[in-house]
Amino acid sequence: MPVMPPKKQQNAGGGGKAKARRPRSYGERDSEEYKEKRERNNVAVKKSREKSRQKSKETQEKVSGLRAENKLLEDRVEVLQQELNVLKDLFMAHSGTASTAPATANLETVNKDHGYTASTPPSS
């Protein structure tokens, strides 16, 4: 059986050789070019972080709005479910058969509970 050479170990970052960085001397940090690059980078970082904060704020506001809308829709479903139960019971009573689960409130009570009157029908 032929002997295989050992496999080369790779970095966790994807395999290639790591770049050798040359150490910066203190003299380079005093150069105008370095200072300008740092200033541009600082401005870019501030802009990026502000944009990220703004996007996060907008997302939170949207989530809050959607939760409020969802709550209103859930309430509306509840009202419609109660109205449906009352109407089913009325239909069954009119047709001569009893419902297996009579509604606990009549339509007028449901409407009153939710602020509806005969002159102001529920809005869809």
Protein topology:
Blueprint: H1 26-29, H2 32-95, H3 107-113
**Dominant shape:** elongated
Beta strands, count: 0
Q: Which class best fits the helix and strand makeup?
A: mainly alpha
Helix proportion range: 55-70%
Mean pLDDT: 79
The rounded distance between the terminal residues' Cα atoms is 81 Å
What is the succession of H and E elements? HHH
- Biggest sheet features: none
Q: Report the portion of residues in β strands.
A: under 5%
- Uncertain runs: none
* Rg measurement, Å: 35 Å
**Helix count, per DSSP?**
3
Organism: Lingula anatina (Brachiopod)
GO cellular component, one term: nucleus
Protein name: CCAAT/enhancer-binding protein gamma isoform X1
Family: Belongs to the bZIP family. C/EBP subfamily.
Describe this structure in words.
This protein has 3 helices and no strands. It has 124 residues and is an all-alpha fold. It has a domain at 36-113. The longest helix is centred in the middle third of the chain and has 64 residues, at 32-95. It is elongated. The termini are far apart. Residues 25-41, 51-61 have a biased composition (Basic and acidic residues). Residues 1-11 have a biased composition (Low complexity). GO terms for molecular function: DNA-binding transcription factor activity, RNA polymerase II-specific; RNA polymerase II cis-regulatory region sequence-specific DNA binding.
How would you briefly describe this protein structure?
The chain is an all-alpha fold and 124 residues long. Helices cover 60% and strands 0% of the residues. The longest helix is centred in the middle third of the chain and has 64 residues, at 32-95.
